């Protein structure tokens, strides 16, 4: 019988996740946006304009790292700085129209590449993989929230 402790599952799946992650990003390298830049852009799309400190906290990165990533995105006109309506001294960052369209384009491209990887599975494995989608999304959502709560407390 296969053990289902979190440690056993992690030990069994970690090598494959690492390999898939590396392979996926090698295939999806056509975009010159980095994973962290895409993550920031997706966060801005989902949550709206945010202060740099908030982005850093939610991404689990240091302020200089967030500031640098945002500066690079701003140079490409994918994000822009706007006045914070609650605190006129503060600045928020938001996606531009170009940023939204680039995020959608890259997302569609990467979905296509991931679909090609998944498409190599046989029918039975494909059905089993489909059953895991909700669990994987739940894990990703709760892990991100736990990371934010841990870093801000």
Descriptive notes:
With about 150 residues, the protein is mainly α. It has a domain of about 100 residues: Winged helix-like DNA-binding domain superfamily/Winged helix DNA-binding domain (Arc Repressor Mutant, subunit A, Orthogonal Bundle). Helix content is about 70%, strand content about 5%. The chain is built from 6 helices and 2 strands. It has a two-stranded antiparallel sheet with strand order 1-2.
Mean pLDDT: 85
**What spatial form do the alpha-carbon principal axes imply?**
elongated
Largest sheet: 2 strands, antiparallel
> Could you estimate the helical fraction of the residues in percent?
over 70%
**What's the end-to-end separation, in Å?**
40 Å
Oligomer status? single chain
- The top-level CATH class of the domain at 23-120 is Mainly Alpha
Structural class of the helices, strands and pairings?
mainly alpha
Q: Give the total of beta strands.
A: 2
| CATH fold category name of the domain at 23-120 | Arc Repressor Mutant, subunit A
Topology as a string of helices (H) and strands (E)? HHHHEEHH
CATH A-level architecture of the domain at 23-120:
Orthogonal Bundle
List segments where confidence is low: pLDDT < 50 over at least 5 consecutive residues: 145-153
